[in-house]
Amino acid sequence: MVGRYPEVFNRSFLTRYGKVLIAAAVGLYLVFAWNLFAIGQVFQRGSWDIAGSYLADWVSYEVRPDVVYHDGYLEVEFPKYSPLGSDPKPDWLVSEEAEVTVITKATQAAPVEAPPEVTGFMVPGAKGTSTGFMAPGAATGGAAVDSGSPVQAAPATSERKILPVSVNVDMGSGSVLVEPYRVTLTRGAETVVLNIESDGIVRADGAMPEWVVNRRDGEKMIASFGFDGRVEIEDDEVKIRQRFLGWENFVFDTSSPFWNRGFGDVMSTILWGERIKPAQSNLSLAVDNFLNNAEWQHGDVYIKLGQTIVMAFVGTLFATAIAFPLSFMAARNITPSFLTNQVTKRLFDFLRSVDMLIWALFFTRAFGPGPLAGISAIFFTDTGTLGKLYSEALENIDEKQREGVRSLGANPVLVQRFGVVPQVLPVFVSQSLYFWESNTRSATIIGAVGAGGIGLKLWEAMRTNADWENVAYMVLLILLVVYVFDTISSRLRGVLIGRGQV
C-alpha cells in the first residue's frame, strides 16, 4: 500500500501540520493585538454604567423634578420644558401640605446717589463746591447728601402659606421620602436615612447599602434604583431622575391641543369635533402639530432623510453615467491604445483610493455644508469604483458575439452597441443598483461631517448627549430605508441576471 500510494503515507510537514500552524499563528496574532491595543485595560477603565444609561435612553425618557429644602417646608420644581407639561402633577409624586410661616429675608435699601455737581469756572483745588458767577458759599440748588449716613435695611416680613412639608416619590423599585433636611431612601427591604447637617454635609444614619454611593466625603450622595432611575441628595436639594419606558410626547408635544389625549379622543376630534382653530381643519392642525413637534421634529427629520436618499441616488446616477463611457476606454480589448488604457485606469485608481469621507470633507470646504457636497463625494468615489468594475466586465466578454456583428459589416460603434452592450448591460445595471443601495448607508456617514442629510441631524442629536431617544428614532428610520432599498435593489438585480421576477 505504501508503494502504491506514497502521497498518502509520506505527506509533507506542512500538509500534516498546516492547520495547527495556522491556528497557532492566529492565536499569537490575537495575543499580540490584545497587548498592543491594551484591550484589557480599556475594558477595565470603561464607564459601563454610563454606557448602560445611554442604552436605556434609547428606549426610555426621564422626568427630573427637584425638591428644594427650606426651613419647615419644601419646594418642588420641574424643568421649564418638562415632558409632563407646564403644570405637572404626576401620580408617582405625592406631597403632604400644611400651613407654614414663610419669612421673607430682609433686604437693604438702595443707597441714594449724590446729584452731579454743577461746575462753572472751578477754582483749582476746590472740592464739593460749584463756582462761577456766584458768591462763595452760595447754594447751588442741589440737595445736600450726607455721605456718612448709614444704609437702612428693609424689615423682614412673614406670611402664612399652604406649602409641601413632605414629598414621597414612588421610584418603582423603591421610594424616596423627602422632608426638610432629611431624606429616607427605600429599595426592596433596605432603608437608609440621610440627614443634612447644619454644616451642609450629608450624613447617613447607620451603614449605607451598596446602591447608595458617596463619592467624596461630605458631598452629594447618589442612590441608584436600576432602570427606574436615580436620586441625587445634595445639601440644598434632592434631584429626582425618574425613568419611564417609551418615547415621551412622540406624536404631539406639550404645546399641542391634542397633547395627552387618548387615540379615540383625538380621532373623534379630528373627524367630528368642532374646529379648534376656525381657519384650519382639525385634521390639518393635527398633521401640522405632528410634523412640527418641538421635541421630535418629525418634519425636519423626514426632509433630511429625503435629502439622504436624493444624495445617494443622484451621486450613483452621475457616477454610472460617467463610468460607463470611460470603462470602454479602460478595457484593453475595446480600446487597444496602451496610453488611453493606463490614463483611464489610473484615474479610476485615484478616485476610488481617496475615501468617500475624505471627499466629503473636501467638498464641504469647497461648497459649504449641504447635500451638494455629499452628492459630489459619492459621485467621485463611485466613478472610480464602477469604472474599474465595468472595465473588468468588458475585458471578460464573449468575443464571438462581437465578431459576429463585425462580420456583417457593422461600423465600430454598432459593433460595441450590438456585440458588447447586450452582454454587459445587466451586469452594469446590477452593480449600479447595488452601489445605490450601499450609498444610502454611506450618505448617512458623510452627512455627519457636514454633507447634509439625516447624518448631520443624527450627529447633532448625539452631540447634545441628552437626546438619545431621538438618535434611536433616526437610526430606525435609516434601517427602514436601507431595508426597503435593499429589497428593491435585490429584486431588480435578480430580474436583470435572470434569477427571478418582480
Please tell me about this protein's structure.
The protein is an alpha+beta fold and about 500 residues long. It is about 50% helix and about 15% strand. It has 15 helices and 13 strands. It has helices at about 5-10, 15-35, 40-45, 50-60, 265-270, 280-290, 300-330, 340-355, 355-365, 370-395, 400-405, 410-420, 420-450, 455-465, 470-495; strands spanning about 60-65, 65-70, 75, 95-105, 155-170, 175-180, 180-185, 190-195, 200-205, 210-215, 220-225, 230-235, 235-245. The strands form two sheets. Strands 1, 2, 3, 10, 11, 12 and 13 form a seven-stranded antiparallel beta sheet that branches. A six-stranded antiparallel beta sheet has the order 4-5-6-7-8-9, with no helix packed on it. Strand 8 and strand 9 form a beta hairpin. Helix 4 crosses helix 15, helix 13 (about 420-450) packs parallel to helix 14 and helix 13 (about 420-450) packs antiparallel against helix 15 (about 470-495). The chain is elongated, with a radius of gyration of 38 Å. It starts with 5 loop residues before the first helix and ends in a 6-residue tail after the last helix. About 25% of the residues are buried. Residues about 115-145 have low confidence and may be disordered.
